[in-house]
Amino acid sequence: MFEGQNHVHAFATAVGTLGGFQAQPEWFADAAQTPVWQILMAAVLVYQGGGGLDVTYSLVVAVLFFLLVEMSKYIKFSKGEEPASEEKEIESPEFYSNYGY
Predict the structure, then answer these.
(1) Predicted model pTM
(2) Mind giving me the DSSP string for the chain?
(3) 99 - beta bridge partners?
(4) Does residue 57 contact residue 20 with C-beta atoms inside 8 Å?
(5) Which positions ≥6 away from 49 have C-beta within 8 Å?
(6) Average pLDDT in the chain
(7) Is pLDDT at 101 greater than 60 in this prediction?
(8) For the segment 55-74, what is each residue's pLDDT rounded down to a tens digit?
(9) What is the mean pLDDT of residues 23-36?
(10) Taking phi first (over 0 means left), then psi (-120 to 50 degrees means alpha), and beta for anything else, what does residue 77 get?
(11) Which residue of 9, 33, 92, 98 is surrounded by the most CB atoms within 10 Å?
(12) For residue 95, what pLDDT is reported?
């Protein structure tokens, strides 16, 4: 289906969607909060960059990249530190009328 396409070039263009550009107008920033807009903008970049001016291929790369980024949000790396041990809560001394510590 996508024989002859430069997958590396398309993926490199998709990585460019992660940032490093000038600040966008407020309306664009608002629209950019939706997944549909994010995929559309990625498809535009892939189309002109590494998608070989193939709309279907560019859209497929954009959707796959979007899903990859979304799934990566669930990956956590630890710094090799041991988890903090649960410390028992120290009970405060009880005070009774005319008694105390």
Answers:
(1) 0.55
(2) --TT--HHHHHHHHHGGGS-SPPPPHHHHHHTTSHHHHHHHHHHHHHHHTSTT-HHHHHHHHHHHHHHHHHHTT-----SPPPPPPPPPPPPPP-BTTB--
(3) 96
(4) no
(5) 9, 10, 12, 13, 16
(6) 81
(7) no
(8) 999 999 999 999 999 999 99
(9) 88
(10) beta
(11) 9
(12) 61
Q: How many CA atoms lie within 13 A of 13 on its CB side?
A: 23
As a whole number of angstroms, the distance between CA 84 and CA 72 comes to 25
The residue behind tokens 């997944």 is: 35
d(CA 13, CA 69): 14
Is pLDDT larger for residue 52 or for residue 17? 52
Report residue 85 as tokens.
Answer: 């041990």
The residue written with tokens 């001016």 in the block is: 53
CA proximity to 55, closest of 42, 67, 68, 66: 42
